Amino acid sequence: MLGDYRITGRRASDIAASVEAGVGTGALAPGAPLPPLRELAAALGVNPNTVAAAYRTLRERGVIETDGRRGSRVRARPSSTPRDALGPAVPQGVRDLASGNPDLSLLPALDGALAAAARRYGRAPTLYGQDPVAPELARLARAGFDADGVPAGPVAVTSGALDGIERVLAAHLRPGDAVAVEDPGWGSVLDLVPALGLRVLPVAVDDDGPVAGAVERALAQGARALLVTSRAQNPTGAAVGAERARELRAVLAAHPGVLVIDDDHGHGIVDLPLFPLGGVTRHWALVRSTAKAYGPDLRLAVLTGDTVTLDRVRGRQLLGPGWVSRLLQYTAVELWSTDAVDRAAVARSYGERRQALVAALRERGVRAHGRSGMNVWVPVADETGVVTRLLAAGWAVAAGARFRVEAAAGVRVTVSPLAVAEAAGLADAIAAAVRPAGGGRTG
User: Fold this and answer.
1) What's the rounded Cα separation, in Å, for the pair 386 and 101?
2) Which residues are within 8 A (CB) of 127 and not within 5 positions of it... i.e. 6 or more apart?
3) DSSP H or E stretch at residue 206
């Protein structure tokens, strides 16, 4: 079963270390099956419970996976390998609609804000022992949360949305716990959850966000946390509306012990109202990133939540990085104070591109989704074939496998580099790629 590699060890920790060593050296290839518990226990002369503990440790570390009767096997890729790294390189001369970056022309210049931040820092340099959150940023963040109906709570600052989500999950969950995650959903979250030793319970998504019935099933299956993208959902463009928020809040009310995380990464690039889910359960957090509106290199997100959650997040942060640089915090203060981004104009620009592409695809009989944000999701039967044919036609799109667990196949098209006038030509290429032999309609 394992070829020439021999698993060794008498203790669970030693057996787990032996398997990890084999994976690390390549002696145990991705997808390689591991011996059944009793078989390996007999070979090593140990109790089957010892092997079971070793396998459990390996699952929690994201080294192996167990699939019912198929048994345990080495994960097809390490839990630390980002899904984005698995996409094909974009050849020279091909339009990149796959990387998911914002439109550079819609990002504000940062030189003025950075200079103002440096001057502010020069007047009062940051020293050890100060509050990790600049008071001006806390006030602005809290005012924004209040305006959007987010429940009262303290404010923390993290190095981007994913950092905030990780810290909130780690504040409450332990390896082996299950997390309800949108499917299709943000690939980085689908990577992060198993990397933390947690289990993904996929939740179906439509244009209004997570489907209430799917959330209810995941919670009934033992999910201890729910992650929801409030607006500009990646990859589908879904946005939680008023009615869907009411449905989800009703479901959550029956599960007060569930941790709820709202990811509002689309703040600043959407014109749809926010309907937060925080406050229904005892523990909750809402994370708001600056990346999409001000640029990915402004590694900053503000988050709020219940007092216990924020105390744990900030306390653990102090034992690690300590705080996010006040230079970055002061830069965000300058950008927010001066309204450096015309949010309505940015939302309108992305909206025009999305709507033009979705409408053009509809005219060609191709179903697509894109209610908010900068992405359009196109259901397809054959992701690899569609991606390959579009590359040959001069367009790079992202295969849906990077964003899904059980959801049907699709491709993600990022409209940031697209002009409205190009929507028809791209729609022609997508329609041809979806129906290469002149097949029927897709929706």
Assistant:
1) 21
2) none
3) strand 199-206
Q: Which of 385, 370, 381 is nearest to 415 (CA)?
A: 370
How far apart CA 131 and CA 145 sit, in angstroms, is: 20
Contact 262, 279 (CB under 8 A): no
pLDDT digits (tens, 9 = 90+) for 301-336: 999 999 999 999 999 999 999 999 999 999 999 999
DSSP 100-166: -PPPGGGSPP-HHHHHHHHHHHHHS---TTS-SS-HHHHHHHHHHHHHTTPPP--EEEESSHHHHHH
If you write DSSP's letter for every residue of 283-302 in order, what string do you get? SEEEEEESHHHH-TTS--EE
Q: Which pTM value belongs to this model?
A: 0.84
Do residues 278 and 286 make contact, with C-beta atoms less than 8 angstroms apart? Answer: yes
Mean pLDDT of the chain: 92
- pLDDT reported for residue 28: 86
3-class DSSP state of 332: helix
What distance lies between CA 77 and its chain's CA centroid? Answer: 18
Q: Following DSSP, what letter does each residue of 377-414 receive, concatenated? A: EEE-S-HHHHHHHHHHTTEE-EEGGGG-SSSPPEEEEE
Please, which residues have CB within 8 angstroms of residue 121's CB and are 6 or more apart in sequence? 326, 327, 330
What is the rounded distance in angstroms from the CA atom of residue 387 to the CA atom of residue 381?
Answer: 11
What is the Cα Rg of the chain in Å? 23
What residues are paired with 226 via a beta bridge?
180, 260
Q: Is the peptide bond before 202 cis (omega within 30 degrees of 0)?
A: no
Query: How far apart are alpha carbons 103 and 13 in whole angstroms?
Result: 48
Q: What phi, psi does 49 have (nearest 5°)?
A: -65, -30
- The model's pLDDT over 95-128, given as tens digits with 9 standing for 90+, comes to 999 999 999 999 999 999 999 999 999 999 999 9
